Amino acid sequence: MARRRQAVTIKHVAQDAGVSLQTVSRVINNEPNVRPAMKERIQASIDKLGYVPSIAAQRMSGSRSYLILAINDRERTIADWRARQGSDWIDQMLLGGMLKCAEHGYRMIFELVDTHNDHVERELGATIAALQPDGVILTPPHSDNPLIAGLLAKHGIPFARIGSRGTGAGFALTMGDETSAYEATRHLIDLGHSRIGFITGSDEYSLSEWRHQGYVRAMTEAGLDPQTWCAEGDFSYASGAAAARRLLAMADRPTAIIASNDQMTLAALDTATQAGLAVPADLSLVCFDNTPVTRFTNPQLTAVDQPIAATFSRAVELLLDRDAAAPKAPVDVPGELIVRGSTAPPAARPSG
Amino acid sequence: MARRRQAVTIKHVAQDAGVSLQTVSRVINNEPNVRPAMKERIQASIDKLGYVPSIAAQRMSGSRSYLILAINDRERTIADWRARQGSDWIDQMLLGGMLKCAEHGYRMIFELVDTHNDHVERELGATIAALQPDGVILTPPHSDNPLIAGLLAKHGIPFARIGSRGTGAGFALTMGDETSAYEATRHLIDLGHSRIGFITGSDEYSLSEWRHQGYVRAMTEAGLDPQTWCAEGDFSYASGAAAARRLLAMADRPTAIIASNDQMTLAALDTATQAGLAVPADLSLVCFDNTPVTRFTNPQLTAVDQPIAATFSRAVELLLDRDAAAPKAPVDVPGELIVRGSTAPPAARPSG
DNA sequence: GTGAAAGCGCTAACAA
DNA sequence: TTGTTAGCGCTTTCAC
């Protein structure tokens, strides 16, 4: 208890099994060239003594650190935590990433980094020097930051870029945005809608554009006008409300609206209600991002599920598979449309 | 880039500043016995080279690991993540704990542990051996687990027990449950209620009892009956619904109900609505735990805020303050009553 | 106040 | 297939 040292070290195991340190090390790391009998004997000693390698020592001797670092935007994350609006990005990241790491004996550690900061490099560089992670996961809006990519590449650390299609160092993963937007639009078209509105997200995020593209594709394919009912938003409630007001004031107002995130959908719902429109009877609504709030509105919102957990899980897998080469093309993890109560056939035509 | 090594080590700094490794180490660790001029010169080299100590090496040489480990219940945490109901315990833990750690150059790492498992000790023992954290934070229901406390004490690792009043190794912190329950009850009494219902939580959690005690104290103090309108629940929605049904079926039904968590409050709200009672006109409702969902009901719920972030922040502070002795008595971080739309004077009497 | 030596627990490289 | 040696980057002795 005095000065804290490892209780059971590789030495104890070696001694107990009557072999050299190196052989024990081989067993720990599942390396070849150990006779089964020997391996078994050593494993028995390990179990008996309850030995667990110190990751600090492993890292020190030039091996792996068993740490995966995930980077999130500081400002946005803290704002979400403080707001307590039920945004669960971090939770889903943990659900997918942390659990997958655990399966491989890894830990996921995450840091908040300021993108709009000129010393991102220093900040992140310090973390890397201190932790020496075996892999890094970048999330928007860091995913396409060339400074970060350059730094990571320089250090030779494999990294994943979530929500990116960019090429260059590391590998990219997307969350089915284009396809999901296409499907959400199709869902409305199949229901009989033809005047379908779309509220875009902030163009600081590439996925805003992808979502828009999916909408345009579905509309065009169905011979519908993909421009008239398109309104700009920036992911904020206020921008969503403004966009919805504009859309609903049109002579030829849309009978359905797809909004690029939950806050804007909420805003559209409130705006419609205030305008005396019932959802979904007078207006159908599709929400992007299946966040908790979609379950608490009245009616519950039909939403596009963003596969956050699955994507992080996949990113970790790719990072840890040292044999496979990093994917060249962006890996697309498909999203899913969750149909709830906010979508129905348009009122104007027989709904039966 | 080949075999990954530290880019800038203490050696480089020592060489650059023209001093011994030891002196640099003293500066890094803010130790005495370094002349100011010397310190400045070394600091300049550190800044110039962008040196950051490797925590692996620091830990190796018997110093600190700069890691704080937080332990949460595996089953409950994963269930919450999967449910996506907006439970934000982990987020608030991170907000308070992780940010406070960062202030001190520490990282917070967290693990999910199975309490209802006979090898908790082995599981946690392995994590401790691998990570060698400088401190551990236990959350319910681990906080009062004697196996865990024993293990930690044996290793000489300081630890905090959140949501506990138990004595023994480590130190305890509570989140103002008794006082908050008292205040919530007072709030209703002040509003003019006298038949106030209370739905208890699972007795696997000590805080259920504390909350109940606060209610009893306020009722008794006001000369009201603290027994008649008390119903048992276990934190689940189903149990809350059953309890609410029982309460509302009474001839002398309560005009207000306090439920020991958000799910049970939701259940009470739904039950009341189904019974044709308006909230708050016919029934006032107070929610324990100011989780996101309290903002999404109609009306929004008057709720007791559980100071999760503040408590974790405090726990980290206490863990890292190596000079101060660990607190003897439980540290109570006060909660707060957030008044929203679900409480009002009872209908029976003039409400003006 | 500063420096030199030893060693933490482990693995890479080499030798046997 | 196994063992030996050296060293990772840092902090602890202890000497000056």
Automatic annotation (TrEMBL), chains A, B:
<feature type="domain" description="HTH lacI-type">
    <location>
        <begin position="8"/>
        <end position="62"/>
    </location>
</feature>
<keyword id="KW-0238">DNA-binding</keyword>
<dbReference type="InterPro" id="IPR028082">
    <property type="entry name" value="Peripla_BP_I"/>
</dbReference>
<keyword id="KW-0805">Transcription regulation</keyword>
<dbReference type="InterPro" id="IPR046335">
    <property type="entry name" value="LacI/GalR-like_sensor"/>
</dbReference>
<dbReference type="InterPro" id="IPR010982">
    <property type="entry name" value="Lambda_DNA-bd_dom_sf"/>
</dbReference>
<dbReference type="Pfam" id="PF00356">
    <property type="entry name" value="LacI"/>
</dbReference>
<protein>
    <submittedName>
        <fullName>LacI family transcriptional regulator</fullName>
    </submittedName>
</protein>
<dbReference type="GO" id="GO:0000976">
    <property type="term" value="F:transcription cis-regulatory region binding"/>
</dbReference>
<dbReference type="InterPro" id="IPR000843">
    <property type="entry name" value="HTH_LacI"/>
</dbReference>
<dbReference type="Pfam" id="PF13377">
    <property type="entry name" value="Peripla_BP_3"/>
</dbReference>
<keyword id="KW-0804">Transcription</keyword>
<dbReference type="GO" id="GO:0003700">
    <property type="term" value="F:DNA-binding transcription factor activity"/>
</dbReference>
